[in-house]
Amino acid sequence: MSAADVVGQDKPTPPAETTPAGVATLYRRALDNLKSGNLGVLPIALGIVFIVVFFSFKATNFFTGNNFDNIIVQMAGTAMLAFGVVFVLLLGEIDLSISYVAGIGALTVAELQLPGSGHQINGLLAMVAAVVICAAIGGAQGSIVAFVGVPSFVVTLAGFMIWQGVILQKLEQPGSIIIQDRWINYTASYYFSDFAGWLIAGIIIAIYAVTVLGGVIGKRRAGVAIRSPGLVVAKLVGVAVAAFGVVAVSNHAKVPHGLPLAGVLVVIFLVILTFLAKRTTFGRHVYAVGGNAEAARRAGINVPRIRILVFMISSAMAAVGGIILAANVNSVDLNFGGGTLLLNAIAAAVIGGVSLFGGRGEVRAAFLGALVIATVSNGLNTAGYATGVIYMVTGVILLFAVTLDTIARRLQVRSGR
Amino acid sequence: MNVKPLLELRGITKSFGSVQALSDVDFEVLDGEVMALVGDNGAGKSTLVKCVAGTHSPDSGEILFEGKEVHIHGPKDAAKLGIEVVYQDLALCDNLDVVQNMYLGREVHDRLQRLKEPIMEQKTAETLKSLAVTTINSIRQPVATLSGGQRQSVAVAKAVQWNSKLVILDEPTAALGVAQTEQVLALVRRLAEQGLAVVIISHNLHDVFETATRITVLRLGRTVGIFERAKTTQQEIVQAITSGAPVSISGTPETAGATP
């Protein structure tokens, strides 16, 4: 969201742009972006619109308020994991352990909320504890990558096996743990009232507007050119329409009725992590290390520190996602973290346009990618297709997205040098 | 010359195991001067620069900066003194834009680590303007989309932005076209005009004669001699590089026979 105006800035600035930008300027910017291989959100936004329209005709109960809320809750867990994946991919590394680290997070909250276990604590505290423990796991894995130099693929593959083993070992006896704590379950099953929903949408828009306008004022004060004010206005309107639109549809749902907390949590993390990636020195250094680690080192950046922190973020976000996924089914069982969770999280980031080679991508990619995956799987489901078809279609979309990105990248190299 | 050198190296010796990379090398640069450092592969140019940059520490010998003896233990020490090294192809992150590269590792931020983009953008524009780097369309375009000469210009601008006193350029024109080479060489001359001391390492004697005021020739880890550009010829330098001519400045036509 707020990343968008930073991303869109890499354009030549003819003096004419100080006057309100017309459609022609926007069109030329889009063309420039295409040429330099910077596709932005355009392809994926069109893709989502296409998917929604397609399934609305294909399945009668797809375009309903109820199903809308379903999609939001279904995407929330994957989106949280994918947020962490974005940071790891930005470094040019990979984290294969996240699905079972999410399992460890879920197991931790389940264990700590268990009545009569002797170590029952408040659900909110249990969630904090789970995130802290998982961040420590990420710190350990990241340290091995950063200091010893073992490839992240191997370290996190080992983590994948180890944490799966821990879950199996721990849950062998009970088979599963039921989550009764209301705070934990709220992450997937709390729905705001109509009024609260509108209020939240208003707050989100206000925050976005203040951020954008603050940036514009800062630039004007420093005498730096503001690139296409038309685009700034368009983005503001877009965010406003999206926020109010989501609330309007959610408030039309019957059971459950209203805006789901899970969706709000996704947006909160989207905003915080986008800020971290785009507006702070830490984020800048993540991009630098992913782009050229040697240049970053020579520029005085502490590269091992950045690597470790990124793996901590990845594991912490896995814990957040794991909690929501567990809350969605009110339990943790032996199979938690298995199936397609890991690959869906990585696929979400990649579909959204994050490069596997490091240094290129946005946090919002994870959000959009997770939305695509959840919408497609939900749509195929409501249209009555089997799981096999869902996997095949998701695979084709992934391949298509990466092919598009690779072609864009080659165009960029050609238009450079 | 009675002017005190900005950087002076005395009797620098460095060996890696049994390989003697530098033996008893003397070197100096004055303010506002372009000193070229030339020599064949393995002559010890890179090792000498790495001693100044703090990547290597010499086994013996002393480094004087502004007349005082200094010990440089890393790039940060060098930067603190005002020494910046521009390495060929290793200085920039392709995925970041010009402003982001210029401030890499030294971003302007507030107490909450929030970046102050407008200030960085404004200062970058000023720096590039002061160096007359005008070919870049937008300082917000990724470095990957720049030409080789533009990239090198950004790398050099990045080095001089931090009130540096000495800029060392490692092969700044390798892999550049004719026009782009000219662009970078003009930039190098401008740095010296602004009073900086510049060391340029190059294999290309044409570039060296275009920019340098003096030329230090290294051969097999030893100083062959220091030549005044105005009083020497390319043949003499080639002879010094290949066979190690006497230290005296002759410039006589007889040396022409030694060129390969």
Characteristic key phrases:
heterodimer, A: 417 residues, mainly alpha, ABC transporter involved in vitamin B12 uptake, BtuC, two-stranded antiparallel sheet, 17 helices, 2 strands, 73% helix, 1% strand, disordered N terminus, B: 260 residues, alpha/beta, Rossmann fold, 6-stranded mixed sheet, 4-stranded antiparallel sheet, 31% helix, globular, disordered C terminus
* Distance separating the two termini of chain A: 31 Å
The whole-angstrom Rg of chain A is 22 Å
Rg over C-alpha atoms of chain B, rounded to the nearest angstrom: 19 Å
How many helix segments of chain B? 8
Q: Can you give the mean pLDDT of chain B? A: 84
Q: Which assembly state applies to the chains in this document?
A: heterodimer
Count of individual domains of chain B: 1
Question: Could you name the CATH homologous superfamily of chain B?
Answer: P-loop containing nucleotide triphosphate hydrolases
For the largest beta-sheet of chain B, the strand count, sense and barrel status come to: 6 strands, mixed
Instruction: Give me the CATH architecture of chain B, please.
Output: 3-Layer(aba) Sandwich
Greatest interface? A-B, 41 and 39 residues
CATH topology of chain B: Rossmann fold
- Report the mean per-residue pLDDT of chain A as an integer: 87
Tell me the number of structural domains of chain A.
1
Descriptive account of the structure:
The complex is a heterodimer of chains A (about 425) and B (about 260). With about 425 residues, chain A is mostly helical. Chain A has one domain (about 5, about 40-190, about 260-415): Orthogonal Bundle (ABC transporter involved in vitamin B12 uptake, BtuC). Chain A is about 75% helix and about 0% strand. Chain A is built from 17 helices and two strands. Chain A has helices spanning about 5, 25-35, 40-60, 65-90, 100-115, 125-150, 150-170, 180-190, 195-220, 230-250, 260-280, 280-290, 295-300, 305-330, 340-350, 365-380, 385-415; strands at about 175-180, 330-335. A two-stranded antiparallel sheet of chain A has the order 1-2. In chain A, α5 crosses α14 and α11 (about 260-280) crosses α12. Chain A is globular. By secondary structure, chain B is of the alpha/beta class. Chain B has one domain: P-loop containing nucleotide triphosphate hydrolases (Rossmann fold, 3-Layer(aba) Sandwich), CATH 3.40.50.300. Helices cover about 30% and strands about 25% of the residues of chain B. Chain B has eight helices and ten strands. In chain B, the strands form two sheets. In chain B, strands 6-7-8-3-9-10 form a six-stranded mixed beta sheet, sandwiched between helices. In chain B, a hairpin with a 2-residue loop joins β9 and β10 (about 220-230). The longest helix of chain B is centred in the C-terminal third of the chain and has 16 residues, at about 180-195. The radius of gyration of chain B is 19 Å and the shape is globular. The model of chain B is unreliable at about 250-260 (pLDDT under 50). Classes of the chains: A mainly alpha (about 425), B alpha/beta (about 260).
